[in-house]
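Lab notebook, design round three. We kept the backbone fixed and only want residue identities now. Task for the bench partner: fill in a sequence for the structure below.
Input structure tokens:
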């Protein structure tokens, strides 16, 4: 098996910033320490090319990110300090999703220890997302003919407005999301199927909602599922507003992976969300997704 990680230094964020950049390093350490993925199975994510980035983003926006000339308004919308490190990590995140998607088509399952940047739109970033990794991966594979039908299952607690703004209505694509109804973004761009859950939703109601939407993915008959396995539905997440347990998240992942294995659908995993206090709760949930994948796919 082959999985990917952004081999770039941590993003420089001010003390007390809401985005816990340390979580990616902690996840990799946890994954290796607990033997969920071997060191040999982890590869540095390639950096996305400008050609790949401009499949989903305007050339002007890509250039402004890379040369550090974004407007103050867009930097504010992204919510992260603009820096060369942010640009490098953002390119690696996109490259990691594309590499993982290609690998999933070959081996049935892959993923990266980052990704899920579903709030990035064509001309601007938002919500801690600079470039949209899943949109670039989907558009690239469709353009190359590597896949004709792709589904995106977005289980981050925040609705994937960037995914929808870039991808909705394109032939071969299905966008499915389950999110909190009173959470960011407050101006939605609907996907194909959006399930809105009230604050405080727990395991049972969440898993019932997931069971309701999985048949639509099966009916789409995708060549590939891009799975955004957000962990911010977790009860401890300070930005989530839902109340799932670690056991509930594990069962959620199991349902998705079992569907993929049963139907022979290759799946590529991107992680999302993760703002628990302490952050170790989010890291444990991230690691749990890869552990569940290992159990279901038996590698």
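Proposed sequence:
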């Amino acid at each position: 098996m082959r999985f990917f990680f952004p081999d770039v230094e941590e993003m420089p964020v001010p003390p007390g910033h809401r985005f816990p950049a340390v979580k990616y390093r902690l996840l990799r350490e946890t994954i290796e320490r607990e033997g969920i993925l071997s060191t040999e199975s982890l590869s540095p994510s390639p950096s996305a090319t400008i050609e790949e980035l401009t499949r989903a983003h305007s050339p002007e926006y890509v250039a402004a990110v890379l040369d550090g000339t974004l407007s103050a308004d867009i930097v504010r919308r992204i919510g992260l300090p603009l820096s060369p490190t942010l640009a490098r990590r953002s390119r690696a995140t996109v490259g990691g999703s594309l590499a993982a998607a290609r690998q999933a088509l070959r081996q049935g399952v892959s993923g990266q220890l980052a990704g899920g940047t579903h709030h990035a739109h064509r001309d601007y970033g938002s919500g801690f997302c600079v470039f949209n990794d899943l949109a670039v991966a989907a558009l690239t594979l469709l353009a190359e003919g590597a896949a004709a039908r792709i589904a995106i299952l977005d289980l981050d607690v925040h609705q994937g407005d960037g995914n929808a703004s870039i991808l909705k209505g394109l032939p071969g694509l299905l966008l499915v999301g389950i999110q909190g109804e009173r959470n960011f973004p407050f101006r939605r761009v609907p996907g194909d199927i959006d399930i809105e859950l009230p604050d405080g939703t727990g395991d049972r109601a969440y898993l019932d909602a997931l069971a309701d939407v999985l048949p639509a993915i099966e009916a789409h008959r995708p060549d590939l599922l891009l799975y955004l396995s957000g962990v911010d539905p977790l009860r401890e997440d300070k930005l989530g507003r839902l109340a799932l347990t670690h056991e509930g998240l594990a069962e959620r992942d199991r349902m998705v992976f079992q569907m993929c294995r049963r139907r022979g659908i290759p799946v590529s995993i991107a992680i999302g969300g993760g703002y628990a206090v302490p952050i170790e709760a989010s890291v444990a949930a991230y690691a749990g997704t890869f552990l569940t994948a290992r159990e279901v796919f038996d590698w």
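Keep this in mind before ordering anything: Residues 84-107 form the longest helix (24 residues).
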